[in-house]
Specification:
The chain is built from three helices and eleven strands; from the N terminus they run E-E-E-E-E-E-E-H-E-E-E-E-H-H. The chain is of the alpha+beta class. The protein has two domains: 43 residues, no CATH class; 157 residues, Nucleoside Triphosphate Pyrophosphohydrolase.
């Protein structure tokens, strides 16, 4: 098997010939003309690439280990208007990381705003690039411990145009939705698959903490 070594992230391996801003609004679109060093040691021909700058985000899958239930949220997404299932998507809690905020700050705040639940413990899962061919956005992904006993209802910040419906379902039901293609948000897919593989570990850890706290 071929060994993967990757390439060093060295400024000397990238030459930015020109950079301009195509659009500046709520988000920003930048255009680069650049070249980068090839695997054979040479340089590629200059290429032009547009990059969507929308900042970075954090997301959390709220999980109640005692009830073996998760919280999914449903909301309208303009980018999914032409998607086969329509623009109301089943997702996990997420938000943009603002300046001076940490990813943990974001998921704790957004859990209250979007789902009306408090996260008491967090397990970091992945920090992944959403679509590096066209955007710099990264998502810091977590699994969060919640009490889903009274979760539900409609949430969101009205001033931000949010209308978010909370669904509390068993992990098995969520995995069935995933298998049926009813969940097509990347962060939700990744987090649910992680929890499916690690549920026993998570429940042992969090339920043991409950016993020790009594």
């Amino acid at each position: 098997m071929q060994k993967f070594t990757g390439k060093n992230n060295m400024p000397a391996d990238i030459e930015i010939i020109d950079k301009s801003i195509c659009f500046q609004g709520f988000f920003r679109l930048e255009r680069y003309r650049l070249r980068y060093r090839l695997f054979n040691g040479g340089w590629c021909h200059p290429v032009v690439r547009e990059v969507f700058e929308r900042g970075h985000a954090a997301a959390v899958l709220p999980y109640d280990p005692l009830r073996n239930e998760i919280i999914l949220i449903e909301q309208f997404r303009v980018g999914a208007m032409a998607a086969p299932g329509g623009p109301w998507l089943l997702e996990i809690v997420a938000g943009i990381i603002e300046e001076s905020e940490s990813a943990i700050d974001v998921v704790k705040r957004e859990s209250l705003e979007e789902a009306g639940c408090a996260v008491t413990d967090l397990i970091p899962l992945y920090d992944y690039l959403v679509s590096p061919g066209g955007t710099t956005e990264r998502i810091a992904l977590f699994c969060g411990k919640v009490d889903a006993t009274h979760a539900g209802g409609i949430h969101g910040v009205i001033e931000e145009g949010e209308d978010i419906k909370v669904h509390v379902i068993t992990l098995e039901a969520a995995l069935s939705l995933l298998k049926a293609g009813k969940i097509n948000s990347a962060s939700a897919i990744i987090a649910l698959q992680w929890l499916a593989l690690n549920r026993d570990y998570v429940r042992r850890q969090w339920l043991s903490e409950n016993q020790h706290s009594k």
